[in-house]
Amino acid sequence: MKYKYQIIFLGSLGDLSEEIRTLFFEKVKELKLPIDSFVVIDDKNFQSKYLGKQPSFVFYFGDKEGNFKNVDLVDRLIKDGTLILPIYYNKEFFGTEIPKKLENQNGLLYDPTKKDKIINLALESFGKLRQTRKIFISYKRDESTSVAIQLYEALEKNNFDVFLDTHSIKQGEPFQDELWHRMSDCDVIILLNTPEFLTSRWCKEEIAEASAKKIGIIQLIWPEHKLDSTSEFCFPTQLYASHFEMEVFNDKNRSKLKQEFVDELVMNTESIRARNLASRQDSLITEFTNFAFSNGKNVTLQPERFLTEELGENKRRIFIPIIGIPQSIDCNQHDELRREINEFNIESIYLIYDDVRIREKWLKHLDWLNDYLDIKTLKKQNFNKWLQQN
Fold first, then answer.
1. What is the pLDDT of residue 173?
2. Burial 294-321 (b: 16+ CB within 10 A, else e)
3. What is the C-alpha separation between 321 and 299, in angstroms, rounded?
4. Are 59 and 8 in contact (CB under 8 A)?
5. How far apart (Å, rounded) are the C-alpha atoms in residues 330 and 348?
6. Helix 259-294 vs helix 15-30: crossing angle, to nearest 10
7. Mean pLDDT score, 12-22
8. What is the Cα–Cα distance from 238 to 228, expressed in whole angstroms?
9. Tag placement on the chain: N or C end, fewer CB within 10 Å?
10. Distance (Å, rounded) from C-alpha 135 to C-alpha 168?
11. What pLDDT score was predicted for residue 220?
12. What are phi and psi of 136, to 5 degrees?
């Protein structure tokens, strides 16, 4: 790869910045990304290492005393259009702890329980995690409506795009089709496993569907109930009366989880979202590779988690696994590979994706985009046929 991703640490550095750095590379390893595709820059090596035209993300750590550091470097980064995340410590003192040059940046109030969010913001900016952070809440209406709404509101507040049937499906839409469509595009499912949850045919199918698509499930098991059904990607938590306000857990309209548990759940959701991405990519890559080999294609998995097919005469085709539903913005972002991989003549780039349960109207839209965009999409059900013909 010609380009490297620049992780830049500026401001008042210390124990927190070192911890964020360590956690960042732990997450990179978890996502099975090559460590050497990232370069770490701080004020000591900035002049020798920083390249203005490389993808970059800056963690700027504020100072509680207002002794701002590296302001000259911040000025250069702003002119380069680099993404900068100011991190401050007291809710009322952003203007005191962060230099004026960064007052228009959307800063993050430091919370020790939300370090995963700090890391994921950087990975999202590099396209290593989806910028849309989609969560699906699965529940039985006549048992856990109040808790489902409570979690919906808490996750929305923390910048997740949350699907809850009562809030997310427009009138006039085919209910079950839209539900499956939204599930296929989510990162994590939060399943409220109440005593009668599995008596519903649809609830059982949701577990089966999530398991088949390898979507991570955070399963909350109600008090006086047990884990009856699980999947390979299930993260179960047994609830007790003490987890609920006033220990009321069996009233669909009044039951509420305690706030400290909800905060912890949001944090775990952030962590599992990233962890689950690699396993879903693995599944898609393996399926495509098996079809490619069976059709005599010479494909190779690159460290950056995309596949290349050698066509001879220094030409390549590239196949990039997309988790969830491809968007037109995915096509634009991945067109950058043409500039990054300069040692080969790239004939074409395809985004490969699992089309199961995606609504027909959206599949037709993706097919229509293929007629107009340089970056094409290729659905899983067509892998074998396409490889036979191309």
1. 58
2. ebebebebeeebbbbbebeeeebbbbbb
3. 14
4. yes
5. 15
6. 40
7. 94
8. 12
9. C
10. 12
11. 93
12. -120, 125
Helix (H), strand (E), coil (C) string for 52-99: CCCCEEEEEECCCCCCCCCHHHHHHHHHCCCEEEEEECCCCCHHHHCC
Burial of 53 (0-12, 13-18, 19+ CB in 10 A): exposed
Domain with CATH 3.40.50.10140 in the chain: 134-277
Rounded CA separation 275/281 (Å): 11
The domain at 5-125 falls in which architecture?
3-Layer(aba) Sandwich (3.40)
Q: Which residues contact 371 (CB under 8 A, 6 or more apart)?
A: none
**How many helices (H) does the chain have, and how many strands (E)?**
14, 15
Q: Looking at 34-151, which runs of residues are DSSP E strands?
A: 38-41, 56-61, 83-88, 108-109, 134-138
Residue 56 contacts residue 82 (beta carbons within 8 Å)? yes
* Number of residues in the chain: 390
344 with 302: CB under 8 angstroms? no
Under 8 Å CB-to-CB from 139, ≥6 apart: which residues? 145, 147, 148, 191, 192, 194, 197
**pTM: predicted TM-score of the whole model, two decimal places:** 0.76
Task: Identify the bridge partners of residue 85 per DSSP, sorted by sequence position.
Answer: 59
pLDDT at 1: 45
Mean pLDDT across the stretch 61-73?
93
Q: Taking the domain 134-277, which CATH number applies? A: 3.40.50.10140
Residue 340 is encoded by which pair of tokens? 């990054």
DSSP category for residue 111 = -
Beta-bridged to residue 352, according to DSSP, are 321, 378
* Non-local CB neighbours of 55 within 8 Å, separated by 6+ positions: 3, 5, 6, 125, 126
The CA–CA distances, whole Å, from 172 to 169, 175, 176, 178, 180 equal 9, 8, 12, 11, 16
